[in-house]
Write a structure and sequence with these properties.
With 595 residues, the protein is mainly α. It is 61% helix and 4% strand. A three-stranded antiparallel sheet has the order 1-2-3, with no helix packed on it. Strands 4-7 form a two-stranded parallel sheet. A two-stranded antiparallel ribbon has the order 5-6. Helix 5 crosses helix 17 and helix 6 runs parallel beside helix 17.
């Protein structure tokens, strides 16, 4: 459901009533401005995102301990499963966006996939509740005799996890875009309302996350996993019902097809015509875009220009004036793809940060689980230490807004590339600090005659710095990279800029999986124990964190080279450059509430 043209025209169809020409009501008629959209509709839509965050974070941050202590999986295997799940969920956001843009539309994509996510949480609840779907309980002091979950038990678990990931992808790919559709971007009052709404709703969304890693995680650990996962399912179903109940109040936009199709069309046409010669006059390349949306040809990636070379058969057998898009593309479409390609080096160098991020819900949680987490008589759940990670994000964003943006009147501050650089640098420090903290933990372990299986006499709160520092780094990486992708993506492909950002998260988790498996294979020493052993207390997690820190340092050097050489993409029509960038900020605010 993408907007087909930039103007949001208002038309008077009845006396005293204003209708929007490019926004429609549930019947398909032009939407009446006074009775559709606005704050309440946007809040209802983003309410489903809050429940999605509550469900996903509540399950994902505590999943590694469930795999360790209930499904009796080795430490490294548990980490790999969580990383693969997160990578799968964020990567399939591309599929969710494609389905919304090409088939179902944003409204039905959210409605259907919210139910799928609830179904996934329900399956996980059943898996955690029925004794036959999990192995017998294991005494930590007799860990060597633990029975691992069977293939059937893990199979049921994976079905629930896959459904949860698919639900996340469908909701996350469309929810912020549908929320922005509820405001008229050309109405100054509504645009101001949208800015105010999204600026503050980001913090409300994070309240759902904080509840997930505190209250929900506590219920999972102290009451039961089945109850905790059941609450997640109930929350998603309730949110979906409320969302569907306001269907008559939403504003809808027509689908215009997925920009991913345009990418494939340009590449396909260029490959088919790779042997054709360019015309003597390069201006004869095909172009039918309007002057205000036209992008002038550049000399980069010239092989793609073959897609705009006119040849016999491009317009069909009946002499149609419209070319076959799989055979002939406009120069503008070709240049839009070139713009996306120029973004890729920056995109690739942000992936390493999400590898660092993955440690906060995997090995760092396992570290906390092995340590003293008591505050008086209260035991803090291991996954709840992520509240320091979330706190780091929120405090950093608030301080940056108050101390830098407001004092400068919003005109100064770090550029998007500078924000990314700062975030990458801080993440290196975070992993170095994590390696140091792990050495302290290992020192306590070495004081025992044999590897301890009970809680270590070392407070888990020494891990707070690594959680908080990674949170600070994410505040810069997230805001900088998302704004960069939205601002630098061509106008015709801004719809996939959010998906492009989400793929960096996905690949970061997959890189973690590759690193874990690689280190398990190449690091066994004379004693045959790899750095990442079956139990966290037998591992050399400090070495693993040091490797990530070194890789981050190398990646940071590559990023600096790419950032220095990067030249900003030109927008459609030179007179509209600044307008396009400013418009992208509105979309950025909407997507800020999403992750």
């Amino acid at each position: 459901m993408e907007v087909e043209n930039g103007a949001n025209m208002e038309v008077e169809m009845e006396e005293g009533k204003t209708f929007l020409s490019d926004a429609f009501d549930y019947k398909g008629a032009p939407a009446e401005k006074a009775k559709t959209g606005g704050w309440v509709s946007a809040a209802t839509i983003l309410g489903i995102e809050m429940c999605e965050r509550f469900t996903t974070m509540g399950i994902a941050t505590n999943l590694v301990t469930y795999l360790d202590h209930t499904m009796n999986q080795p430490s490294a295997t548990s980490s790999t499963i969580v990383s693969n799940f997160s990578g799968f969920a964020f990567l399939t956001c591309l599929l969710g966006g494609f389905i919304a843009d090409s088939f179902l539309g944003r409204y039905w994509t959210i409605a259907i996939f919210a139910f799928v996510e609830a179904l996934g949480a329900g399956v996980l609840s059943i898996s955690a509740t029925l004794p036959g779907l999990r192995p017998p309980p294991c005494n930590p002091s007799q860990a060597v005799n633990c029975v691992k979950a069977s293939k059937l038990q893990m199979g049921i678990f994976y079905i629930g996890l896959c459904a949860l990931g698919m639900g996340l992808a469908g909701v996350k790919s469309s929810v912020s875009a549908l929320a922005t559709d509820q405001f008229d971007h050309n109405d100054k009052k509504e645009k101001t309302k949208m800015e105010y709404f999204f600026n503050r709703f980001y913090f409300v969304i994070n309240i759902g996350t904080i509840l997930a890693v505190t209250v929900l995680v506590y219920i999972q650990d102290e009451v039961s996993r089945g109850v905790g996962y059941g609450i997640c399912a109930a929350a998603m179903i309730t949110a979906d019902i409320i969302y569907l109940s306001r269907s008559r109040k939403y504003r809808y936009k027509k689908r215009s097809g997925s920009p991913l199709i345009q990418v494939v069309q340009v590449i396909a046409a260029a490959i088919k015509k790779r042997k054709l010669e360019f015309p003597s006059d390069i201006s004869l390349l095909y172009e039918d875009s309007s002057p205000e949306s036209r992008v002038h040809r550049t000399n980069h990636f010239r092989w793609l220009d073959k897609a705009a070379v006119i040849s016999d058969g491009d317009f069909g057998k009946e002499g149609s004036a419209t070319p076959n898009p799989w055979k002939l593309c406009t120069v503008t479409k070709v240049e839009e793809l070139k713009m996306m390609i120029r973004i890729l080096p920056i995109w690739a160098t942000t992936i390493m940060f999400w590898c660092v991020h993955a440690q906060m819900i995997t090995f760092s949680v396992q570290q906390a689980a092995s340590m003293d987490r008591s505050i008086g008589k209260f035991q803090v759940p291991p996954a709840s230490f992520n509240v320091f990670f979330i706190g780091g994000i929120m405090i950093t964003l608030a301080l940056y807004d108050r101390l830098i943006m407001k004092r400068s009147g919003g005109s100064k501050g770090l550029t998007n590339l500078q924000k990314i650089g700062v975030g990458l640098a801080i993440s290196i420090i975070a992993m170095a600090a994590a390696a140091g903290m792990e050495q302290k933990r290992l020192k306590v372990i070495r004081s025992y005659d044999k590897t301890p299986t009970t809680t270590l006499p070392l407070t888990a709160f020494v891990l707070v710095p690594q959680f908080a520092i990674v949170g600070i780094a994410e505040a810069f990486i997230y805001s900088g990279s998302l704004a960069f992708f939205i601002g630098q993506a061509p106008k015709g492909m801004k719809a996939i800029s959010n998906s492009l950002f989400l793929t960096t998260i996905a690949f970061g988790y997959f890189v973690t999986t590759i690193l874990v498996n690689l280190i398990k294979k190449i690091t066994p020493g004379k004693d045959g124990i790899p750095w990442l052993a079956s139990k966290i207390n037998d591992s050399r997690l400090d070495y693993f964190y040091a490797v990530i820190s070194v890789l981050g340092l190398i990646n940071f050097g590559v990023y600096l080279v790419c950032a220095k050489r990067y030249k900003p993409n030109a927008s459609h029509g030179s007179a509209k450059d600044s307008d396009d960038v400013n418009a992208s900020h509105d979309e950025e605010r909407a997507r800020d509430a999403e992750i």
